């Protein structure tokens, strides 16, 4: 992920504006944290915010994640699956079922 | 995005552990911000951190983004494209080329 | 704030370790966001976390805020009061009482 | 910290607006993370942002930290000093001098 068309659109958007020079991995990591804060702001005082606003903020987070994966030369699907396997080992069904205890305390 | 297989794996992981009860949109938004902080931590004192660690933290951010999109009933590709169109209007190539000035000051 | 003794302790801690070289304003701003994520993690799945853990994470956020204020040459009490005056203008009691609507929509 | 006058001003501001009902510890922890993201935004693409803007965003972070300390019934100076003692043990001068290696790898 994303689809090849979406990836091409994102890359064209950045190329047209000559913004690649600003997209260091570090700046992209900062941008992800900043946008994650804006997404969280939707839920600052309410657990049922406007859905369109949430979708826009979530899209911003994911957009920067796609840019960072690009820079790192990795595919998001691949790293999500690889991390899921690690997490599955840390949280075996037998111990983790129905509770959110940190794996170090399971 | 993600691919149908990755989405199925993520859903099975959560279902097996009976964790869906904890995945309110608000908790997922908090989780995205928390994981974005851990991703940023890779770059806290260095601009060239260990790539494996960065990939794992990026995967955590994206995993929660996938879960939240699921809860909202939206596709990540769709909302990324829709947001890109809005951003393209706010940052016309003519004004934004080569600089990161906020659109309100362009 | 903080008290002169606390400020002196923080400065001595940094000086002894020769860490001032790492404390650029940008690195401190990243550190504040990272520690704010760790504080939020206390509340990721629960609204009643362990108080000692919360206090430690809150202390980390505030410690980096003190270091940043130091770098900027400002006093935290001063900037808090000055910002409070601005916020009071944006949120007049008459309009804001009892609700968390953003000032742009009051 | 803060000074008694600043604390009194912050409390009066909240009381006049009847906002205490929204200031659960969890909402305050979210607010600290949100404001830390806005502070970080000052440094998103530049390491030398406008100082007034930085001061305002830093003030927002600290304001919510003061509110949270209040809710928890603790004094910020006290918890900062207590945490500093713990950190000093994890990072002995002998091992930590001049480098930012995590204590688990010192």
Automatic annotation (TrEMBL), chains A, B, C, D:
Gene Ontology MF: a single term: nucleoside triphosphate diphosphatase activity
GO BP annotations, alphabetical order: nucleoside triphosphate catabolic process
Gene3D superfamilies for the chain: MazG-like
Domain of life: Bacteria
Coiled coil: none
Stored PANTHER family: DCTP PYROPHOSPHATASE 1
Protein name: NTP pyrophosphatase, house-cleaning of non-canonical NTPs
Species name: Microbacterium hydrocarbonoxydans
